[in-house]
Each structure stands twice: as structure tokens, then as C-alpha cells.
Write a structure and sequence with these properties.
It is built from 10 helices and 12 strands. The chain is an alpha/beta fold. It has 2 domains: 2-114 and 298-321, ATPase, nucleotide binding domain (Nucleotidyltransferase, domain 5), CATH 3.30.420; 125-293, Nucleotidyltransferase, domain 5, CATH 3.30.420.40. It has a 5-stranded mixed β-sheet with strand order 3-2-1-4-5, sandwiched between helices. Strands 8-7-6-11-12 form a 5-stranded mixed β-sheet. Bound molecules: 5'-O-[(R)-(carboxyoxy)(hydroxy)phosphoryl]adenosine and zinc ion. 5'-O-[(R)-(carboxyoxy)(hydroxy)phosphoryl]adenosine binds at residues 10, 132-134, 158, 161-162, 173-176, 179, 268-270, 272-273, 300-301.
Length: 331
């Protein structure tokens, strides 16, 4: 089965051709440079760039693979930015209609959830942590049936990374920057309060951590001297990253106690984080759990994971019934 994947939910335009679950070719046009001056994704700019980039990427994909081999079109339906999603969905509908191909709408979070299993077998029962610039949830997936166990009550972790990075004058996206600087700071230097739910829920929360750091700035914390980050700034950044990772692993540990399964999938842009990966692998080996991370090319938003999910569990729908759905839920 040859599947064309299209992803335009946020700030990466991506197309891919997947054959029997294997990514033959994937192309990504990143918009990071366009959004950098604004320290975050500007929705209208994202839509315009998708409109420009998508036909260019499709032409390039057509040079790399024989598009006559496409037997179905998979497209991210949501969640995401409405204008951005509309570009991909409209394109996919047109492509599918013109060639009389089945159209498979895909949930972006579910595509992340399964991304560690591209080219590999999926465990029958696993816990899945999805952490990105717009999502944070933990699922149990048993024989393809999904149950959401926790979700963020406010910000996503990637969003917290990006906002904290902005305070320190670091470029967007902030996650990779803070990750890179981590070894230069002392993660124990600042005792940051970990989120606790008053109702005892195991949901996640990141806005408190972000506000705590903003409060220090409000109280006169100066991150730079002669343009360079001070040792205290590096310590505060390392303490922030340490707190994010401890918070995530606290939830993983608590939910694993309730659902002691042998596999954990970690996906979404924040899964690229070196410290999160190291701590998760250490936690997993202590519990006899196998932790699965996506291959590098499928961590941040990409069309390979979209076509891959469609191949595994997609359901074709009549194109006229497929609409972009910015608030699409996964359970
Ligand atoms: O999955 P993704 O590409 O887009 C969404 O679906 O949101 O995730 C992007 C997010 C950004 O907030 C970025 O700062 C974060 O992932 N990110 C990281 C790292 N690489 C990307 N966060 C922490 N550490 C990283 N190494
Ligand atoms: Zn994503």
C-alpha cells in the first residue's frame, strides 16, 4: 500500500510517501525562521507559508518517487491551527478527488503517539506520553484501544520552554536552546516548585513553572551581563529543565504504578530533549520497561508519521465529509 502523507497543522509543511509502513521519502519545509522574530508561531504567517510551500514540496516529492504509486492520501485533520490545517486538508481533498483515491483523515496527536513505531512492531499494550509545543497527554493503548490517563491543565511543555527561552533572550524555538545549555548550569541550584493538583489528579501543568521564572525576572533577575548569559541564568535554565523532566517522570511513574505495562512510547517535539531521554531510559531500565522514542526525522512535526498512522489504522472517508478540525480530541 502506497500512502501520500500531508502535514500542515502548525509551522512545518511536510509531505511523505510511505509504502507498507516504511517511509520512502519525507520532505519538510520548516518555517522556524519566519516565526523566530515573534518568538512563537504566528497563525496567519503559518497558513501563508503552507500555501506557498506545499505545491513546491509536492513537485519535489514527485521527482523523488512515482506518485502514480499513491493508493491513498492521509492528511492531518487536527488538532492544530485552523488556517494551517485548512491548507493541508484542502490540498489533500483535491489530490484525492482528482485521482479518485481514498482520503484518510489523521489525528495529529495519535500520529505522534505511534511515531516511535515507524518501521517496527507496535507492542500490544503500552503507555504513551505525547509532549510537544501544543500538547501534553499520557495514554494507555491496549490492542489499539486508547484511554487518556492524564493531560495538561494549562500550557504544553514545549510552549513553556519557548516562553522561558524568550525571557532569557534565547531564539525560538526555545526547547533545543535550553536543552543545549543544560550541561553548563547546575540543575540543583534553584528549588523550583513542582506542580501538584489540589484534587490529587495526575494531570500535568506547566504554567506554574513558567510563571515562577517570570516572577524572578519581575523581582529583578538579570539573565545577561555584557550580552552573555550569567552563571545564575544558566543555573536557572538548568533548574527549569530539570523540574519539567521530574514533573513528567513523576506522572509516568505514578501512572505506571496503576498501569504496570512493559512499554512506554515518548513522542512529540519535546521527546527530542536529551535530558528527558536520559532520565526516561534510566527510569525505564529500573522498572523493566522498554522506552521507545521516535527516530530523529519523526520527532517534530512530520508527514511520515501521518502516513504511517494511516497505514496502521486509518479509516478512509468520503472527501466531502473531511473537514479541518482544530479542536479534534483524542479521547
Ligand atoms: O511536535 P512539535 O514539532 O509541534 C507541535 O505539535 O507542537 O513540537 C515543537 C515543540 C517546540 O515547543 C520546541 O521548543 C519543542 O518542541 N522542542 C524541544 C526540543 N526540541 C523541540 N523541547 C525541549 N527540548 C528539545 N530538544
Ligand atoms: Zn506535533
Amino acid at each position: 500500500m502506497g500512502i501520500l502523507g500531508i502535514e500542515t497543522s502548525c509551522d512545518e509543511t511536510s509531505v511523505a510517501f510511505v509504502e507498507e509502513g516504511r517511509v520512502v521519502r519525507q520532505l519538510i519545509a520548516s518555517q522556524v525562521e519566519a516565526h523566530r522574530p515573534y518568538h512563537g508561531v504566528v497563525p496567519e504567517l503559518a497558513s501563508r507559508h503552507h500555501l506557498q510551500n506545499l505545491p513546491v514540496l509536492m513537485r519535489e516529492l514527485g521527482r523523488a518517487v512515482d506518485l502514480r504509486k499513491v493508493e491513498a492520501v492521509a492528511v492531518t485533520q487536527g488538532p492544530g491551527l485552523v488556517g494551517a490545517l485548512l491548507v493541508g486538508v484542502a490540498f489533500a481533498k483535491g489530490f484525492a478527488a482528482a485521482r479518485r483515491l481514498p482520503l484518510v483523515p489523521v489525528n495529529h496527536i495519535e500520529a505522534h503517539l505511534y511515531s516511535p513505531f515507524i518501521g517496527r512492531s507496535v507492542p500490544a499494550d503500552f503507555l504513551g506520553l505525547v509532549v510537544s509545543g501544543s500538547h501534553a497527554s499520557l495514554y494507555r493503548v491496549r490492542r489499539g484501544r486508547l484511554q487518556r490517563l492524564a493531560r495538561t491543565r494549562d500550557d504544553a511543555p514545549g510552549e513553556a520552554y519557548d516562553k522561558v527561552a524568550k525571557l532569557f533572550g534565547l531564539p525560538y524555538p526555545g526547547g533545543p536552546e535550553i536543552d543545549r545549555l543544560y550541561p553548563q548550569g547546575d540543575p540543583g541550584a534553584f528549588d523550583l516548585p513542582l506542580p501538584k493538583m489540589s484534587d490529587g489528579s495526575l494531570d500535568l501543568s506547566f504554567s506554574g513553572l513558567k510563571s515562577h521564572i517570570a516572577y524572578r525576572f519581575h523581582k529583578g533577575f538579570r539573565p545577561r551581563r555584557r550580552g552573555r548569559l550569567t552563571p545564575q541564568a544558566l543555573d536557572l535554565l538548568a533548574s527549569f529543565q530539570s523540574a519539567v523532566v521530574r514533573h513528567l517522570l513523576h506522572r509516568v511513574e505514578a501512572l505506571h504504578r496503576l498501569h504496570p505495562v512493559r512499554h512506554l512510547s515518548v513522542s512529540g517535539g519535546v521527546a527530542a530533549n536529551a535530558h528527558l531521554r536520559e532520565r526516561t531510559l534510566a527510569w525505564a531500565s529500573g522498572r523493566g520497561v522498554e522506552a521507545h522514542f521516535p527516530p530523529t526525522d519523526y520527532i517534530t512535526d512530520n508527514a511520515g508519521m501521518v502516513a504511517h498512522l494511516a497505514w496502521r489504522r486509518g479509516k478512509a472517508r468520503p472527501p466531502a465529509e473531511v473537514d479541518a478540525d482544530p479542536g479534534l480530541e483524542l479521547n
